[in-house]
Structure formats: C-alpha cells, structure tokens
Amino acid sequence: MTGPSPTSSPRNPHYTLPNEWDCANERLALLGAAYDAESIALARRLGVGPGWRCLEAGAGGGSFARWLCDATLPGGRVLAVDTDPRHLTDLPHRGGEVARMDLVTDELPEGAFDFVHTRFVLLHIAQRDIVLQRLTRALAPGGVLLLEEGDGLGVLHEMPGAFGEVWRAFARSTETAGANQAWARNLPAQLEAAGLIDVRAEAEIPMFRGGSPMARMWNLTWAQIHETSVALDVSPEVIAAAQTEVVG
Q: S-S: 95 plus which of 73, 165, 182, 227, CB 3.0-4.6 Å?
C-alpha cells in the first residue's frame, strides 16, 4: 500500500475528518496547497485587504488564515477558530488570534467581522444549520460571507476504477457520521432566507493529475479512512489500488 500505514483516528463528535490523526498536519497542508490559490483569488475579488476584520471558521491547518494575516494586518483582525487548533500555533506570531471553539456549541462574536470564511467545513457537520446561523450573525453590516463547500453532483456515481469505489465509500462513511455531500446545492436559497443580500454561487469540477498536491491529499484521506472503508466492504486491495491511482 502507498502512503502511511492505516490507522484509526479519534472522532470529533461534530466533524467527520478530525485533526487528531497522526498525518493530519500533512493532509491539511496538501489541502491548502491544492485549494488556497482559488480561495485567495476569490477573497481578493471580494475586496479583502488591509484593515479587514476576518474570521476563519474551522481553520484546520491554517494556511488560508496565514494569508489573511498577510493581507489584512496590521490594522485589521484575523481570528482563526477550530475545535482542535493544534496546527495554528504560529498564527499569533503573525498577528492573528487563535481560539479553541466548537462551532456547534460555542457562540461567536456577533457583528464583529467584515469577512467570514469556511472551506469544506459545513458539509461535515450534522448541525450545520446552527453553525450557519452563527456565521451569519458574526458578520458586521455590509460584511462578506464566503462558504466553500464540496458536492459530488454529477461525479459521485460516474467516477471509475478503484478511486471511484473508495470515494463512494468515503461519501457513505461521512454521511453516516452526519455529513451531507449534497447540502451546498440549496445554500444560496438558505442564505437569502437568512436575510443576506447579493448572494452569488459558483460551481466547478476540479481536475488533478496523479502526484499533485490534491492527489496526495486524497491518498492520505484514503489512509485516514482505511478502517472505515474496510468496514463498508471495500477490500484493502481496492484501497491500495486507489492510492496507487492518485500517486501517479
């Protein structure tokens, strides 16, 4: 099998891919390498810059929060929150703030931020509607909410080979734990119902080559959910084949 040995990871009660896993730091760094460029481009289009007060909710590995520090400080504010902030210890040295916070049970400051951002967070949280309300209330008047979510629309059942088989097992395992791979499809309507204005939505299908940061990120994801996939009747041989496909 390619990559780290399969291992079980402790379960956060609200999130389906917890940060406690031994290789989580590497996986989160690869996720940032795969997606940061597009997230940064979106934030720049929305005007994020010096002086902005920013909330990064579910900050994970912290790569986007680090960019926010570079883009908005001094003069602004960057608060990065996560239920497990172990990968965010360098942010205070950059002028940012870090808080251990469960987005489901802990209150966020209300009306305090010009920019609120999440990436691949809400679809993994069963109580996402509660979190969405809190994120909305955290916006200052005229503030911007940017939610980047995943969706298997048009891809889930068409994905071929071992990678597709393991991806479908991954989707099933996360949904058993409370995730919703299709939740983002109705997000614009939910935001308008919450009173937000100028709601916009974009969708894209990412393509990647074997050996790229995104491919390596999925390789580690398959290692993280190895035991769960086997429990869902995916053989270790198929998991190993899927990892070989993405390593390239």
A: 73
